[in-house]
Specification:
Distance between the termini: 102 Å
Oligomer: single chain
Largest sheet: 5 strands, antiparallel
Number of helices: 23
Radius of gyration: 48 Å
Helix content: 25-40%
Low-confidence stretches: 1-57, 738-794
Amino acid sequence: MAEAADFPGMTPSPARRWLRRTGALLAGAPLLAGLLQLPVSSAHAAEPTVAKEASDTGAVTVAVDSLSPSVPTEGDTLTVSGTVTNKGKQTVTDAHVDLRLGSALTTRSAIDSTATRSDDISSSTGSVVGDKYVAEFTKLTPGVSEQFSISVPVDELDLGDGGVYPLGVALSGETSAKPWERVLGVQRTFLPWQPDEAAARTRTTVLWPLISDVHMTAETASNEQQTPVFLNDDLAAEISPGGRLDQLLSLGKSLDVTWVIDPALLASVDAMTERYDIVDGDTTTAGEHQAVAGQWLAELQRAVQGKQVVALPYADPDLASLAHSGTSVTGSLNQLKAATDVAASTVETVLHVTPSTDFAWPVEGAVDPSIVKVATSAGADKVIARSDSLTEKGGLSYTPSAARPIGGGTTAVVADSRLSEAFQGDLTKASASTRAVQEFLAQSLSLNLQTAKQRSIVVAPQRMPTAGQAQAMAEAVSALQGGTWSQTQQLTATAAAKPDPGATTKVPSRSAYPSSLAKRELPRSAFVDIATTQDRLDNFKVVLTDASRVVTPFGRAINREMSTSWRGRTTAASSFRQGVQTYLTTLTEQVKLIQKSELKLSGRSATIPVTVQNNLVQGVDHLVLRLTSTNPTRLEIDGEAYAEQGIEVSGGHSTTVKFTTSAKANGQAAVIAQLYTEDGRAYGAPVTFDVKVTEFTATVMLVIGGGFLLLVLAGFRMYTQRKRAAAREAEDNATADTDPASETAESTQDSGNGPDAESDARSGADDPVQPSDGTPDTAAESTGPSGTGERVDR
């Protein structure tokens, strides 16, 4: 009786151990009598020792590594295997492990309570299951672990009606300080028992997520194939045999589940099937896992045939972050729309199946009005929520069906939180995995037993389960699908099921959103960065002859900047966004103006050449080069303050265009050259240079004016001399007609033999006509602008 009082919940030990305990008590009787005669001071001195001995209670840990079958039926043999470890400081003798069965648990909360105190030895451990179903150890040395395995026919368990039974695995033994048998360690698990088929099977939808982190950058090689560049080779490890994604695929293909896939993952693995590069700082190396990627995709294509595939928006954007921080930034919702639009085509291209794209899945199913509004803004009309967010407040005595109309034509598909959270935490140890599996099955059966009404339930696990979590999930789902109380249903059918009239349909307020989730959201600055990148991309793509080579990789990179996988990784997320911006800036700067030094204008008019260089692989057009004079009163360009010319430059080339300038006064004027897109947006950095006008001084103008005056005077003198000569010739002709002798004489004189010949010669020699007077002025060299592309340098 004293032992039972010291250890609540203890049940009588087997009869064969009764004599041993009695002998131990009799042997201790003299010692007890002596202790009773000790003075009070001695009794007080012994208290620390008693307290120390009490701390040994529960010093042995019990781990249930396997329970098979997970869901037993009549005629089965239940096998429980595990490990016991002595964590105390005293050796445990006469140790043995037995099984203890408790009464059926009637509620889901009772299962929660039992799971919480699974190793509490002070709680009831149930009735021992037969004296012969034990595992005995001579002793348990401190720090040493021992394995055990116990098999018992299910018929020996004396199970009643269907229900969830707590099954305790307890280790009992003695220590030198307390030489009597007692429970030193226990581990409770659950035994789902449903021997007959349930009257109304629960229609269960299990989501099987294939989602990963961001792996691809925006960068691609300049070759024709646009070789993609990856941040690392981590994705290869995930899809290689034994990797996380390989495990999810290998396990999921044998289950009847709804596949939930991020199209960005498919695109990344598909890119790995051909040449791909990996960047590590300033070093780029070639990837080597093409065969692994091809094999994984081929296996996935086979696995999804005939199964429902739900495609998330590209890169699985963080809907809550977008709703809480992104909507205040212009263009953010457009990014979600773009991610949704490309999802279906990506899945169809890679997997050759048509996916459903009308489901939105916020992080952990947490919703509020703003999240629902954003989630449905891109075309989805169904939101996958969770029951710990959309909680029941109507007093229903059972868990309602998942589908809930929440207004505006939107359906909330509410996943069961207990079932969805069953596989979180570290499940690498067999004991943790077994505990998770049995609790999941217990909750599922308990849910089914709540009412005879058939319901549709959704299981939405964490987005990126580890390999250990995936194995536990697969084991539980396999047992569930082979059980007698559940049947598989696709997600679309669950969403279309008739909702329970009493189920809650009110979306919780923004203030109810979990603070633990809010702390991990993308900040507003992230969406500002995204908007900046998109603006630069829009300005860049209009000048390209093949914009798809830039728009596609950068558009998908911007989608990745919004990925849910960045939650809790602020530094990495910021680094990725900055990397995308930097690379885009690098590309845009490949089309630029060549710097110019100061020019000197050597006349009233001249041409100014400006060179545009294109170092891109593809050509650029739809660009306008504008040359502007900052002082048009001194220097005009094509008679105006500025002039423009259209620009086209082939990839890897440069072209020089010329502008006609006119000087109005001497001095210096600054000129600005700037490229613009055809819609008037500045492109790239401007080039500013000075033009110095030095030819228009007062002396130069005086010399030019004097020269012009001399030319006029010389021409007038020539005119008067020729007129006088013509008059004399007319007079001489008249005299010859009246005097033949005189005519003869004049004839002689005209021949140059007369005395006036020398005088006439002298007269001719005195004429001021210069040798150059007969040469006409040459026209100024044409200064008109040359045609665009007059000279192209490689």
